[in-house]
Write a structure and sequence with these properties.
mainly alpha; two-stranded antiparallel sheet; Cyt_c_oxidase_su4_prok; membrane; transmembrane
Length: about 100
């Protein structure tokens, strides 16, 4: 958990500790997104294309929740990790584009 000293004038107060409240909310959101994707597929009555859109949107939201709350990328001092992740995403997108262009042309 991230700790920061909170100062109030000349008094030094106890360090700020992020409690489990945000982690519990993130866990519940992750479970709900998983249930949405599961129910969408299990129902079978929803259009196939719309099902894909719902699953991809839930997956993208799930990634942001995982990175922000569980990997603590929302905190300071994680610039190198964020740059590494963005570099990996760039390489993955570049590989997909190259593979598609190689197959189609």
């Amino acid at each position: 958990m991230s700790e920061q000293s909170v100062t109030n004038g000349n008094k030094k107060e106890r360090p700020y500790v992020e409690g489990p409240k945000k982690h519990i909310v993130a866990f519940i959101m992750s479970v709900l997104l998983t249930l949405v994707a599961f129910v969408t597929v299990a129902s079978g009555g929803i259009n196939k294309d719309f099902t894909y859109i719902i699953i991809i949107a839930a997956a993208i939201l799930q990634v942001f929740i995982q990175l922000a709350f569980w990997m603590h990328l929302k905190d300071r001092g994680h610039t190198f990790a964020i740059i590494g992740i963005l570099g990996g995403v760039f390489v993955a997108i570049l590989c997909v584009i190259m593979a598609l262009s190689w197959v189609w042309w």
